[in-house]
Amino acid sequence: MAGLLRLSRWIDALNARIGKAMSWFILAAVIVSSVNASVRFAISKSSNSWLELQWYLFGAVVLLGSAYTLQQNEHIRIDIISSRLSANARNWIDIFGHIFFLAPLCIVMIWLGAPFFWRSITSGEISASAGGLIMWPAKMLVPLGFILLMLQGVSEFIKRVAVMKGLIADPHAGPGAHGATG
Question: Which residues constitute the domain of residue 149?
Answer without folding.
Answer: 2-74+86-164
